[in-house]
Each structure stands twice: as C-alpha cells, then as structure tokens.
Amino acid sequence: MAVEGASRVRIVREAASLRAQVADWRRQGETIAFVPTMGALHAGHISLVGEAKTLASRVVMSIFVNPTQFAPTEDFGAYPRAFEADAAKFDAAGGDLLFAPAVENMYPQNFATLINVEGPAVAGLEDRFRPTHFSGVATIVAKLLNLCRADLAIFGEKDYQQLKVVTQMARDLDFETKILGAPTIREKDGLALSSRNVYLSAEERRVAPVLHAALARCAADISKGAAIEAALDVARAALADAGFVTDYVEARHAETLRPVASLVDGPIRLLAAAKLGKTRLIDNIAA
Ligand code: AMP
C-alpha cells in the first residue's frame, strides 16, 4: 500500500489496497464511515469527517475529480486540485485513509456502464441545466460504495439533489452502506462553502451571500403564510437585482423533490442555482 506525505493518514491509489485495508479493519471489528469528495477541501468537507468520526471507528475519504459528472463545457480541467493540502487537512481532522485513484483506474478504456437514476434525478432542477451530471455522479458513487463497503457514507446537504439521488440509487440497488446527509457549512455572511468559491472575483464574492439571503427570506415569508410562487418571485427578483443570472429558484417536497403548491403538501426545501459571472453557485434550505 502506498503511504505518502502526511503523518497519520494512509494514502491509497489502488482499489485493491483500499479493499485490503477495509477488509483488515473489518476483521478487527472496526466500523467504517466513507466521505466521498472531489478534493480542494474546505470546512464543509471537514465537517463531514467530524460527523463520520462520531459514527464509526475508521474514516475513509475519497478524492476523485470525476470526469463523467462534468459536461464538456464545464470546468473539469480547471476544477481546483490541492492534494497535498487536502491530505494534511484530512490528517488533522483525524481521518484514516485517503483513496485517490487515477482516472484511468476508475474508468479503464473499455468502461461501458452508466447508472441512470430517475425520480429525484429528473426533478427539473440541476438535471435541467446539467442533463448528464447525475448519471456521472450515480456511477462514480456506486463504484466507490462497492470498493469501500463502508457501514455508512456521508454526503452534504449543500448538494441536496445529489444527496437524494444517491439515497435513491443506494436503496434501489441494495447497497448495504447507509447513506446519511449532513448540514451545509457556511461563511459568516451566509455563503455556503464550496470548492468553486475560489473562482469568485472580490466583487462577486461580496454579492454571493445574496443567494442564501434570498432563500432565507423566501423561507421566512412562506412560513409566515406567503403564497409559495409569490415568495419565489421575490427571491428571483432579489437575485436579478444583485446581478445573478438565475438557473432556478424552486420550492420542492424535501424528500421527493416534486413540486409543492403549499405548506400542507409536506416538508418543503427551497433550492436555487444561479451564476455570478462565470461561477455557478447552488444552495438550498428548509422552508
Ligand atoms: P464535492 O467535493 O464538492 O463533491 O463535495 C464532497 C461532499 O462534501 C459532498 O457530499 C458535498 O455535498 C459536501 N459539501 C460540499 N460543500 C459543503 C458544505 N458547505 N457543507 C457541508 N457539506 C458540503
């Protein structure tokens, strides 16, 4: 097994080494929590490690910038990569094993399978703007769950539709790993932490918290009895005024992601995606 750099954490590049280590831990009666990421770690990712440590005796993180979830027009090449710093952060957070495979190993030349989830993956939210995204996500998560065989895997609510898609896929395909969600970690001004926030110019960074503020106001208005569509329109207008180009601002059933007409239709989640310049931000909150 390759062991590089940081003091405590094991860094593993090969699937066979991951499997061997996890099997070894299992024989010793350890429990395993898994945190899949694309790296460029921030406090949001680290919060998932913290949560994982309370739930299992070993924490495995994957760092893999997954090409199949990026459209050709998206930022796969430019996506921030910071492996050394990531390893140090994961180590400091008390993680045990970092799995960082090469693209060629995850997708060898004759790779020919894609997982297509329906239900929450075709809700008309992210999928409307990134039509191939969730099949890439579902495929890589299925592979990673199969390789890691963890007791549980933790995903951030930051990517709310993704959390629902992965939960659906794991249930439908009988994965034994339990899928858990964890709350979104934010900057003091409300901006959800994201690896993509580094793309924001100083001026865009100043404006970016408007996304969360608009959702928070919308949630408050709905809970005070405002009509949902009217409250969403206020949020859409606030985003446009601040200079965002909005992909969507929607109210959905928090579990199924189906449209909701009023509070009685069930727990509501507000979800939004909007661009500031070239940077696309997503966020969501409970209403
Ligand atoms: P990513 O590296 O962006 O694919 O994210 C890896 C995991 O971290 C996903 O489960 C994300 O939902 C989660 N995550 C990303 N940002 C945050 C955040 N601000 N708070 C909590 N979890 C997050």
TrEMBL record:
Subcellular compartments: Cytoplasm
Family from the record: Belongs to the pantothenate synthetase family.
Enzyme Commission code(s) on record: 6.3.2.1
Entry keyword set: ATP-binding, Cytoplasm, Ligase, Nucleotide-binding, Pantothenate biosynthesis
NCBIfam families with a match to the protein in the record: cyt_tran_rel (TIGR00125), panC (TIGR00018)
Gene: panC
Stretch forming the signal peptide: none
Note: The reaction proceeds by a bi uni uni bi ping pong mechanism.
Organism: Methylocapsa polymorpha
Binding residues annotated for (R)-pantoate, in chain numbering: Q69, Q162
MF terms in GO: ligase activity
Pathway: Cofactor biosynthesis; (R)-pantothenate biosynthesis; (R)-pantothenate from (R)-pantoate and beta-alanine: step 1/1
Protein name as annotated: Pantothenate synthetase
Binding-site positions, ATP: 38-45, 156-159, 185, 193-196
